[in-house]
Amino acid sequence: MNEFRLVDIGEGLTEAEIVSWLVAVGDHVTEDQPVVEIETDKAVVEMPAPVTGTVVSLGGDPGAVIAVGEVLIVIDDGRTGEPAPAVPAGEPAAPAQSPAATQSPAESEPPTGLPTPARSAVASRPLATPATRALARRLGVDLSHVTGSGPGGRIVDADVTTVESAPASSHAAQPTAAQQAPAVTPPAATAGARSGPVAGSRITLRGVRKRTAETMTAAWQSVPHVDSFHEIDVTDLFALREQFKPLAADHGVVVTLTAFFVKATALALVEHPILNSSIDVAAGEIVLHGQRDLGVAVDTPDGLVLPVVRHADERSLIDIARELGRLGEAARSRRLTPAELAGGTFTISNHGVFGGWFGTSLVHGSEVGIAGFGPARRRPELDADDRVVARRGLVMNLAADHRVVDGRDIIEFGLAIRRRLEAPLGLALAGS
């Protein structure tokens, strides 16, 4: 027997939710074959079988939350050996083990009391992406009663929302208690939109929202913030972006303002490396990072996530725009990998897309700073001849860890970003 326990596949992972099983009890699986989709606080991930063999039991029904170290699946690989004693119910989960350790016959434990879904239910698993399955769970829609309109009969988001918006009597069957989402079911919404909560209800704090709550609380409590605000004239930046559109279209990408923000900030970090650092409190040291890896805030139906653009100072605007598009799509479909979310050295937030005027930000994780960009608006200004002219401007907020940087540091860093955005031709020429 081989017990496959949930291991920490991401930075600080402590638990994960079982989205769907790709196999059933009694199925023959091969090593590295995907067997289950799990949802962490960052992404939906397919977990592979550690060995070839027959599925003996599954570690929970879809919707169940299991902790790191708990048994995810048991596979009979045909080996013989003395099984280890079973873990009594109610005792803490065993610590996470390496794949090599979990495959040792002498250390494996016999399956005891693990719930297993019916074979027929898994065998007839509807075709749908993890993002569509997540939408169905939020809306309480049973995918086994949905007709897919996508390629090969695949169920798409529109199929799920169409079923949800139909009268209750038209549903072929209601989902069972085990199929109901553990969190509150929000009202029907358009595909891909953030669903609103139901008044008077409770929403389980989990996934992206839970991680956000934890990291923001830690940032507020442990980091002494210092802020700086800068008004930036982006009139020439808008003109340059218009000139860039044909070239970007030839490369199949759209160059957004965020691409310029990323490039300008990355180059400013080269000039002011103290902002591209982290603090090691235990060692009493400031760690200066050798590369500019910028986390970019992406809004998703589940909350904000921060995929990372690696070596942002060395990339061209076209390359940054392409990477932003790829990471944004992966974020909204919950297909980002842990590696794409880890290791950022500075954060960018373009909250201007939501309107408002300007806002403040909290420093993320072990980083030292974050830059937030507001909306670009037309405003009257006086030119050199005292004539009123129309210009475009935005407000940039910089927040930093005051243990590492002083007011002068953050102001000079902000001016370095401003200088590059107000003379944007240099951004277009920099990078490979």
Question: Helix fraction?
Answer: 25-40%
CATH architecture of the largest domain: 2-Layer Sandwich
CATH class group of the largest domain: Alpha Beta
Global shape: globular
Instruction: Say which CATH homologous superfamily of the largest domain is assigned.
Output: Chloramphenicol acetyltransferase-like domain
The H-and-E topology, N to C, reads as EEEEEEEEHHHHHEHHEEEEEEHHEEEEHH
Main beta sheet = 7 strands, mixed
Radius of gyration: 25 Å
Q: Distance N terminus to C terminus? A: 53 Å
Number of helices: 11
Q: How many distinct beta strands?
A: 19
What's a concise summary of this model?
The protein has 432 residues and is α+β, with helices and mostly antiparallel strands.
Task: Describe this protein's structure.
Strands 9, 12, 15, 16, 17, 18 and 19 form a seven-stranded mixed beta sheet that branches. The protein has a four-stranded antiparallel beta sheet with strand order 1-8-6-3, with no helix packed on it. The chain is 27% helix and 22% strand. A hairpin with a 2-residue loop joins strand 13 and strand 14 (303-305). It folds into three domains: 2-107, RNA polymerase II/Efflux pump adaptor protein, barrel-sandwich hybrid domain (OB fold (Dihydrolipoamide Acetyltransferase, E2P)), CATH 2.40.50.100; 126-204, E3-binding domain (Dihydrolipoamide Transferase, Irregular); 210-429, 2-Layer Sandwich (Chloramphenicol Acetyltransferase). It is α+β, with helices and mostly antiparallel strands and 432 residues long. It is built from eleven helices and 19 strands. It is globular, with a radius of gyration of 25 Å. The model is unreliable at 81-124 and 167-193 (pLDDT under 50). Helix 7 (257-271) crosses helix 8 and helix 7 packs across helix 10 (407-422).
